[in-house]
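Usage

Read records sequentially. Each one opens with the input sequence:
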Amino acid sequence: MNLGLKDRIALVAASSQGIGRATAEAFAAEGCRVAMCARNPQTLQAAGEKIRTQYNAEVFADAFDVTDPAAVSRFIAGVAERFGGVDICVTNAGGPPAKGFLAATLDEWRRALEANFLSTVYFAREVIPHMQRKGWGRIITITSITTRQPITDLVLSNAVRAAVVGLVKSLANEFGKDGILVNNVGPGFTATDRLKELAKARASASGKSGREILDGWAADAPVNRLGEPREIAETIVWLASERASYITGQTVLVDGGMYKGL
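and closes with the structure output:
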């Protein structure tokens, strides 16, 4: 299937590992020019070099913290100078720590807001003008199943990621006239390092092993397994493509059927 993405410029945040890296790889496989960022320069450069070599792709990688609006602005300017603009922007950031409400500090609330909501604002503000000039653009946020179904001990994620959904709807309504589609992808339990950390935290609190926790989450999904990062990535690439040209303002759950609502 031709997704119509060859030579598009795709920016993927937090793309040195996990879902972000899988997404950058998936865009490169479609012939996109790929811009990557993450905090750890060594991990990022290694991921970028592997993608460049494996897919013969043009890759621009820059290490910085997505909670720094000035750094985001410099990165987008660098991408535009290198590639001539931005067509696709995938916002992403590591999830906040697993905490109950009373255990979460005010500083942790602020950091969650900055990393998981305001970073999306920073990227959107910078890329939308580039997309408006082309009359075409895709903004896709990566959040979590928690936007539909809050998860115990993830109060920070439950609350802050819901704000991203409100932003997605607002941007979709405002910029659809400019050819810009804005959607959100909500992964379920996906086999990443972040999930292993969450399982470890749950295990220490429950007396179970991390393996038992992971197996229990897998059993909660009708498909009886955890998701793989590439499965989230393939959904993101499809949403960015011409095959999803009449979809905007939506949250697409990639959760193996774990969400039980209608």
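Summary fields computed downstream for this record:
- The first helix runs from residue 18 to 29.
- The two ends are 30 Å apart (CA to CA).
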